[in-house]
Write a structure and sequence with these properties.
The complex is a heterodimer. Chain A is α/β, with parallel strands linked by helices. Chain A is 37% helix and 22% strand. Chain A has nine helices and ten strands. In chain A, the strands form two sheets. Chain A has a six-stranded mixed beta sheet, with helices on both faces. A two-stranded antiparallel sheet of chain B has the order 1-4. In chain B, strands 2-3 form a two-stranded antiparallel ribbon. In chain B, a hairpin with a 4-residue loop joins β2 and β3. Classes of the chains: A alpha/beta, B mainly alpha.
């Protein structure tokens, strides 16, 4: 437990006109469900991209189990156990639901060094199919396995993307706004699904989220990002009581759920 | 990639492919020499088209210089067969393909590194111009006059030796090897590797976040397509018995693109069907001196505008309409 699973120290990231991240430090321990919250424009997505390897920071370090992974590209981080979803679900829209997961399972098997018994067979092997069905069952998409992904509903695309991540058997599951754009009912079922997934696999989850019900329903640790700085970090209850956080979210004038 | 409801079953598609090959094999018995010559060329162009779409339709790479590999393969075979006649011709053919794959791997290492889309297309176009210039100014390759006297080799098979120069032997050889090459491209497309290609074509970033080394697979697609294209070029030399720099011209690189648009980019066999259709068009308009290109171009334009999915796209839609009607009570 001494080495944190994921640790960011002194992260800075600027786009030409704006400083997005200003000295961000955070520590994710194994088993955490770590939520990064903050008003729009606070830099959540940028931080998320830096942590997952889509972007590299201008300075600072990202360490995974004590190893510097700051400039390790995304596909290699996946091999270290990172799995990631996007704010707007990204799936292979011209493939069927099933084939999307097949690609993912096969990528995982290849990276894990699991060979194929009949190297010339073109169809997915029995082991792959089994893994695919199991994953689809877990997210509840078995009935839609033959549907071309582009025809899935928004919520189902999110589920499919989660399935693709789960198929990688990640140690850290990174979810960028897992319930963005969902109806309250979908949001609830997505939260339940994530809680279930977490319980079954026990992986560490890092997520950004807007919806406070989702955050406080799932997170074991919360970090609040405000204008590119972490202004509070800790257990959900402590963060919720933090006067500065209340200020940011509620504002003096009571301006609602804060727009930066 | 598969508009599934309207597609023929795998068995039916395999049957159609076999039927097509049987038609090719039966052709010398019913058609004159001119047609047979054309058919041999078309068989090679069909495979050539398939290799281009392995990059474009499957992996999302646009090459404007695919003919450079056809040319390099052709000239490499012709040169090697003359310099080293003792080597088994199958090895020389394979060697020409491997050379092309190796060149593509080297070029791709640089060209695919930072550039995708139109930049890669332009780089491949530049490469094809270099190949064109090198060939047309190289004395060893016959300059503008072409590399002449490329022989159809004798093919030792252990128990017997087939003289490919005799009768229609080389034609049958082309058809059989083309079928094999098409089989290789089919296998790559439908295998695990092909699934990765398709994933990259649709969303490279998502693929990377599944742990897929996107650049490596793009390179692989480019190398495989170029290698197989090189073998089709190698086969073409002895067929025509002369190679001119024209085979590396950019208009030759435009052909697989036209085949693909005509046949249907979303279908594996699209470019092959397109090559066949294109040949029929060219043959049909061959007597219209001076305006044959205009007529061919106009018909192509009409097909692409009227049927954006190409010939196979139109067939699929037709099937859908028919089966849709049948299902109605």
């Amino acid at each position: 437990m001494s080495t944190p699973l994921l640790e960011a120290t002194g992260l800075f990231k600027s786009y030409p006109a704006v400083k997005v991240l200003k000295n961000v430090n955070l520590t994710v321990a194994g088993g955490d469900t770590f939520a990064i919250i903050g008003p729009n424009g606070a830099g959540k997505t940028t931080l998320f991209k830096v942590l997952s390897g889509e972007l590299f920071p201008d300075s600072g370090q990202v360490a995974h189990e004590g190893r510097d992974v700051t400039t390790v590209p995304a596909w290699q981080r996946v091999r270290l156990g990172f799995g990631r979803s996007f704010q707007v679900a990204r799936v292979f829209s011209d493939l069927t639901t099933e084939d999307n997961v097949v690609v993912s399972v096969e990528a995982h098997r290849r990276n894990a060094g699991l060979g194929q018994r009949r190297p010339l067979a073109w169809a997915p092997t029995a082991e792959v199919r089994e893994g695919v069905m199991e994953t689809l069952r877990e997210v509840g998409l078995v009935d839609k396995r033959r549907v071309v992904a582009r025809l899935l509903s928004h919520g189902d695309k999110k589920r499919l993307e989660l399935a693709m991540c789960l198929a990688l058997q990640p140690k850290i599951l990174m979810l960028d706004e897992p319930t963005a754009g969902m109806s309250p009912a979908d949001r609830k079922s997505a939260t339940e699904l994530l809680a279930m997934v977490k319980e079954r696999h026990g992986m560490t989850i890092v997520l950004t989220e807007h919806d406070m019900d989702v955050v406080f329903g799932l997170a074991t640790k919360v970090a609040v990002l405000h204008y590119g700085e972490i202004v509070a970090q800790g257990a959900p209850d402590a963060v919720r009581k933090d006067p500065l956080v209340r200020d940011i979210y509620l504002g003096h004038g009571g301006a609602g759920a804060g727009h930066a | 990639m598969e508009p599934s409801p309207a597609q023929a079953s795998p068995l039916m598609r395999f049957g159609l492919a076999m039927l097509c090959m049987a038609a090719f094999l039966a052709l010398p018995g019913i058609a004159d020499k001119g047609i047979v010559f054309l058919a041999g060329t078309v068989a090679l162009q069909m495979v050539f088209g398939l290799t281009w779409n392995l990059m474009f339709g499957q992996t999302g790479l646009v090459s404007f210089g695919h003919a450079s590999f056809f040319a390099v393969g052709g000239y490499a075979y012709a040169y090697a067969a003359r310099a080293l006649p003792q080597v088994h011709p199958l090895l020389t053919f394979a060697g020409a393909g491997l050379l092309c794959a190796a060149i593509a791997a080297l070029v791709g290492l640089i060209a695919l590194r930072r550039s995708q889309g139109v930049y890669f297309a332009i780089l491949t176009l530049a490469l094809s111009q270099i190949v064109y210039l090198v060939i047309s100014s190289s004395a060893a390759l016959g300059r503008e006059d072409g590399f002449t006297g490329i022989r159809r080799p004798k093919l030792p098979l252990g128990w017997t030796t087939i003289d490919l120069a005799a009768g229609n032997a080389y034609y049958y050889f082309i058809v059989v090897v083309s079928a094999l090459l098409a089989g290789i491209v089919w296998w790559v497309t439908h295998s695990r590797v092909g699934r990765v290609f398709r994933a990259i074509q649709q969303d490279p970033e998502r693929a990377a976040f599944l742990g897929i080394p996107v650049q490596r697979y793009r390179l692989m697609s480019y190398a495989i397509a170029s290698g197989v294209a090189g073998v089709t070029g190698a086969l073409f030399g002895p067929w025509l018995q002369i190679l001119t720099p024209e085979v590396a011209h950019w208009t030759a690189s435009a052909r697989p693109i036209l085949y693909t648009l005509l046949g249907g980019v979303h279908f594996f066999w699209g470019p092959a069907v397109g090559a066949l259709g294109f040949a029929v068009l060219e043959y049909g308009t061959r007597t219209l001196h001076g305006i044959s290109e205009i007529v061919t171009g106009a018909i192509l334009l009409a097909v692409v505008l009227a049927a954006p999915g190409g010939i196979l796209g139109a067939v699929a839609r037709l099937r859908q309409r028919i089966t849709g009607k049948e299902r109605r009570p």
